[in-house]
Amino acid sequence: MFNEGGLGFKDMEVWNRAAIAKHVWYLFSGGECSMWCQWVKSYLLKGKSFWGIKMPSDPSWVWRKLLSLRDLIFPIIKFKLGNGENVFLWHDNWHPFDSLLCRYGPRILYDTNLPNNSKVSSIISNDSWNWSFPNSWEIQEWITATPPSLKPSIDSPDIPVWSLTTDGSFSIHSAWDCWRDKGPKVTWSNLVWGPPVIPRAVIQAKCNSHWPSLPWLELVEFVTKSINGKSLKSMIMKLSFLCTVYHIWMERNSRIFSKVFKPEEVVTNSIIQMVRGRLLSMENVKAYAGDNWYLEQWNLPSKILLQSQTAAAERNLSGVNYPTLRVE
To answer: What are 33-86's pLDDT values in tens digits?
Structure first.
């Protein structure tokens, strides 16, 4: 089942999850200007790590949703380390080992004598690491795996990084694209996503074409082969197909779920107007023989064709044959 925007329920669920993830990002990216973020930090986190806090027995809907996303979001939010004052040593994703507590377990707290909610600043001295705790193989592994490029800087703040974007800033689309199910690219993708586009689209008579009665996948393949090129005819056929599919689907949902029925001519007119509206925004479409028929059928101005072809098209539409000036 699909919603009006064309996304399935599963896609919408992923999109909603991505939208909720934005609130998690605010908790790390300096939401000091947000009263909600300040309230969460003061009354829910109380100085504890978002990753390490336990799920309450009776959380609010929003808080439960945020906490339930932790496994998905944790690998994405990393830190560019500065002075380490705002990064949790054992919980945050600042080291190549990700969460040190998950890797080594609670024993690492006893080996280092550093509490559960310690910050990275507790093992920094000036601009260097301070590994002043007893020796163990876990600690030696941790120290060895710390790359030379990972250096603290006491004069710089810690910066959270959303690792799915090039600038490190959060975007709902990047989260959705990361979490959604991805299938192989289909052969008819250009039919749906290529320009010119109308959300989803056969008015055969106005397209001067006949498409055979075929199963859906075979029909899509047939249409895809029929719209090659960038001629006015190809554009009209493509838009008509996409728009028809969209309106038929909308009418189906309306009849099933709302018990509202539109007459066939109303649906058809909606398709025509949507296609025509998109065509009116075009210009400099390369002219081909037979374009005049489409201009008349769709009540289109000749200006959408290449300017060099406009005068000829207007003469043909008017039915007047003007002499052609030849320079030799």
So the answer is: 788 888 999 999 999 999 999 999 999 999 999 999 999 999 999 999 999 999
Same structural domain, 148 and 128: yes
| 120 and 211 housed in the same domain | no
Total structural domains in the chain?
A: 2
In this structure, what token pair is assigned to residue 142? 């941790």
Query: What is the spatial distance between Cα 109 and Cα 122, in angstroms, rounded to a whole number?
Result: 13
92 in any annotated domain: yes
> Given CA atoms 19, 21, 26, 27 in this order, what sign does their dihedral have?
positive
Q: Is 46 left (phi over 0), alpha (psi -120 to 50) or beta?
A: left
pLDDT tens for each residue of 159-169: 999 999 999 99
Cα dihedral: 216, 217, 223, 228 (round 10) = 160
Looking at the structure, tell me whether residues 21 and 55 fall in a common domain: yes
Q: In whole numbers, what is the pLDDT of the chain averaged over residues? A: 83
Q: Are residues 173 and 297 in the same domain?
A: no
70 and 167 part of one domain? yes
List of long-range contacts for 204-207, beta carbons under 8 Å, 24+ apart: 206/236, 206/240, 206/272, 206/297, 206/298, 207/233, 207/236, 207/237, 207/240
pTM over 0.85: no
Domain check: are 148 and 214 in the same one? no
Model confidence pLDDT, tens digit, residues 193-207: 556 554 447 477 788
Give the list of residues 6+ apart from residue 327 with CB closer than 8 angstroms, or none.
none
Do 55 and 30 fall into the same domain? yes
| pLDDT tens profile 89-116 | 999 999 999 999 999 999 999 999 999 9
**Cα 134 from Cα 27, distance rounded (Å):** 34
Contact between 87 and 169 under an 8 Å Cβ cutoff? The reply is no
Q: Residue 300's domain spans which residues?
A: 189-318
- Are 154 and 195 in the same domain? no
